[in-house]
Design a protein that fits this description.
Layout: H1 2-7, H2 11-39, H3 46-69, H4 74-106, H5 109-129
Helix pairs in contact: 2-3, 2-5, 3-4
Length: 147
């Protein structure tokens, strides 16, 4: 979705794609913050989880700014979107290279399956409840989520 946004032919299409990305990121952050992070919070993962919610906050702040100010001009919009992309890619890299391998060592297959099932359930519930999950981002952009 990020690549499509970067290649979009005009600002209107970029905003449309940004909205879809913001919805996806809002859902992603919610299921991690409400299910995954609390379930895997141990002394061995606490520092990484604290950093993860700080990274979520950074992405939420960028998205909230884009949502609240709107696309003032294409150049400014593109610049903030690039900051969002960099923040999300950094977050993903840290989770995939550091947090997830640690969690796989600390938790058994059944525990991880149960966490995954709960994450999927919440994801489906959130989709059923809310057509535009991104609308909750501004209210979540002032402090990191508690875990």
């Amino acid at each position: 979705m990020f690549k499509a946004l970067q290649r979009a032919p005009d600002l209107a299409r970029k905003v449309e794609l940004f909205n879809a990305i913001a919805d996806a990121l809002a859902l992603h952050a919610t299921i991690e913050e409400k299910v995954f992070y609390p379930a895997v919070k141990l002394s061995d993962t606490a520092d990484q989880l604290h950093e993860a919610v700080e990274e979520h906050l950074e992405a939420k702040q960028i998205m909230a700014e884009l949502m609240q100010t709107g696309p003032v001009n294409e150049e400014a919009f593109d610049e903030r979107v690039m900051q969002l992309i960099e923040a999300v890619e950094h977050h993903v890299q840290e989770e995939e290279e550091e947090l997830f391998p640690k969690v796989q060592k600390l938790f058994g297959r059944d525990e991880l399956d149960a966490i995954g099932t709960e994450m999927e359930r919440l994801f489906v519930d959130l989709l059923d409840e809310d057509e535009e999950p991104r609308e909750h981002i501004p209210e979540e952009a002032s402090a990191p989520a508690p875990i």
